[in-house]
Design brief:
This protein is of the alpha/beta class and 290 residues long. It is built from nine helices and ten strands. Helix 7 (177-200) runs parallel beside helix 9. Residues 1-256 form the Aminotransferase class I/classII large domain.
Amino acid sequence: GKKVFLLEPFFPWYLPDVSLAGGEPILIKLRPPSFSLIPFESEIRQAFQQRPRVVVVNTPHNPTGHVLSAAELELIAELCRKHDTIAVSDEAYESQTFGGTPHLRLVDLPGMAERTLTLGTSSKLLSLTGWRVGWLTGPADLVAAVRTMHSYASFCPPTPLQVGVAEALVELADGTEGRAENERIAQLMEGNAILLADALVRIKGVTAYPPQGGYFLVADISGTGMDDMAFCRWLIEEKSINAVPMSLFYAPRAGRDAPCTEVRFAICKERATIEQAVAQLEGGAPPAGA
């Protein structure tokens, strides 16, 4: 099978999709606090020596909230050009960046337009999560291949929803109201991340990694003596708060050296919901090693 380059942690759909397509993953694990590619440049370059047919990048990144910089994107673009690799750029959270961090597109770099598929979704850009309308842009031959596969999978969402999303995209491109609303939502989520992170770090043994964008906040709970599953269970049972164990965002490995100690929280909520969660986190810490 053809090889596919993936960065861990990753959206949990990526690995099964690679497997279903008969591909073989090449995995590079990014690490906190920044989850940046730059410290792992040599490992990434070495991985590309295996000549992956496809590389998947996601910015802003789910689950970590890392936003790829110009230097990081240029590293990927350079290696794609050198090894004739197709790029799939998942930009679902393109409108959600924080603190002036820009969203940059891989397709805009030299030599990448002819080899890049860019993914977007109304679920995030337009807050239409229930409509299930997304899109993909790229060179005609790659789009045609995806269209053929997709027609045998889900075919398409209802036509009226597609028409509605198309109209909304035109309005977003031509007007200021839609952009202002996206900016408002981004500011809301940035504030949510700050509030939630401040509450989490008051729990003994917890470290929070502030995101640069996206819908999520990652925390490390290794200091509690618990793994991700135990901590999430404690949150539900004792605090009535639901989080996602980050082990779901890594490839399963036999004989894993250490348990996963990272947890993902959603910040895509109204401020009152985050404030309620913060209040519920007050008072009491998980029992060590529970």
